[in-house]
Amino acid sequence: MTAALSPPPPCVAAGSADELTDRLKNLLIFEEGRIVRNGLHVSYRDSKGIATIGYGFNLEDGGAAGVLRRVTAKTTSDLIAKAAFLTEPEAQSLLLISEFVALNGVCRHFPRFRVIDLPRQIVLSAMVYQMGEARFGKFRRLIPAVQAQDWPAATASMEQSKWSRSDSPLRARRMAAAMRTGAFPPFARPSPPGQRFAAPIAADGLDTATPTDAGAPPERKPWPFDNE
To answer: Where is the composition biased (Basic and acidic residues) (predicted)?
Structure first.
C-alpha cells in the first residue's frame, strides 16, 4: 500500500520544496528518534506518556487511524498493544505524511512563508511537526516576530517558552540557535543523490523494496534521551 502524498502547500516556493522536505525529513529522523527491534518499529510512550511509533507518530491522535489506513492495514490498538509493528518503509510513509501535515499547518500561520529563508522554514516546520499546529499557535510573540523577520525577538520567544525550559530543552536550544543565526539546524542536511526514500509499501504490508538509505537514520533512541 503506497501512501499518496499531496504536493507541498502553495506557500512553499516550488523551487525550494524538494530541498525543504528532504532536509526537514532528515532533521526529524534525528530529532524524533525511533525504537526498533529486529528491524521493526515498536510503539513506545513519549515524555508525556503518549503512545508513539516510528518517527514521532502519535498513535493517540484523533486522526491517527485514518492516516495509518493510508499506509497499512495495521490498527492503532494493535500497534499500541505491541501486537503489530511497523516496517521501516511504513514508518517512513507516516513520517512523510506527517511532514506534509506540518507544512500545511505552518503555512496557515505564515501565509508568506516562502519569503522566510530556508533554514528558518525548517525550524518552524519542525516545531509544528513536534508540537502540533494548535500548540504552536500559542507562541504569541514568536509568530509576529517571524512575520516581521525580527529574528532576535523570535529567538527570545523560543528560549523563554515552556518548550525550551522543560519540555525539550536541548532540542529547543538547537532550533533557537538556527533561528538566531539563519544556519541550518544540525542534521537538517540533504540526502546523498539518489538516496531520498520513496517509502514503497506492498498491498499486503510487506516491503516491496529496501530503501537505499534505510541505514541512514542515526541510532538515537527517543525519550528519555530526546532532550540530549
So the answer is: 218-228
pTM for the complete prediction? 0.84
The domain limits of the chain are 14-181
Q: Which of 143, 139, 121, 140 is nearest to 131 (CA)?
A: 139
Cβ pair 131, 28 in contact under 8 A? no
Query: 3-state DSSP call for residue 52?
Result: strand
**pLDDT tier, 5 (very low <50, low <70, confident <90, very high otherwise):** low
Which residues have CB under 8 Å from 60's CB, separation 6+? 50, 51, 76, 80
Residue ranges of alpha helices (H) inside 12-117 are 17-32, 64-69, 76-80, 88-109
Is residue 86 predicted with pLDDT exceeding 50? Answer: yes
What is the distance between the alpha carbons of residues 207 and 202, in angstroms, rounded to a whole number?
Answer: 6
What is residue 94's three-state secondary structure?
helix
Spatial distance between the Cα atoms of 9 and 103, rounded to a whole number of angstroms: 7
What does CATH list as the number for 14-181?
Answer: 1.10.530.40
> What are the angstrom distances between the C-alpha of 141 and each of 82, 106, 130, 161, 182?
41, 15, 19, 10, 19
